[in-house]
Amino acid sequence: MAISKIIANITQYISEAAMRIFGPTDDAYPTIGVQPFTGEPYDKRTDDT
């Protein structure tokens, strides 16, 4: 009985991992694309220190 329960737990663990890897993504990131850089590059000579 204990061996069959261990095998069932291992099978469930592996199948859940496979479903997570090969299943559809569940990310909730917005599809906004690439954002252009609109700032000024850092220049140490003009730093306000």
What is the share of helical residues? Answer: 40-55%
Instruction: Assess the beta-strand content as a share of residues.
Output: under 5%
Global Rg: 25 Å
Distance between the termini: 73 Å
What gross morphology would you assign? elongated
| Tally of helical segments | 1
Number of strands: 0
**Regions with pLDDT < 50 over 5+ consecutive residues?**
none
Main sheet properties: none
Q: Can I get a quick summary?
A:
The protein has 1 helix and no strands. By secondary structure, the protein is mostly helical.
Protein model, in words:
The protein has 49 residues and is an all-alpha fold. The protein is 43% helix and 0% strand. The protein is built from 1 helix and no strands. It has one helix at residues 2-22. The radius of gyration is 25 Å and the shape is elongated. It starts with a helix and ends in a 27-residue tail after the last helix. The model has no long low-confidence stretch (mean pLDDT 85).
Spell out the blueprint of helices and strands.
Layout: H1 2-22
List keywords for this structure.
1 helix; 43% helix; 49 residues; elongated; mainly alpha; single chain
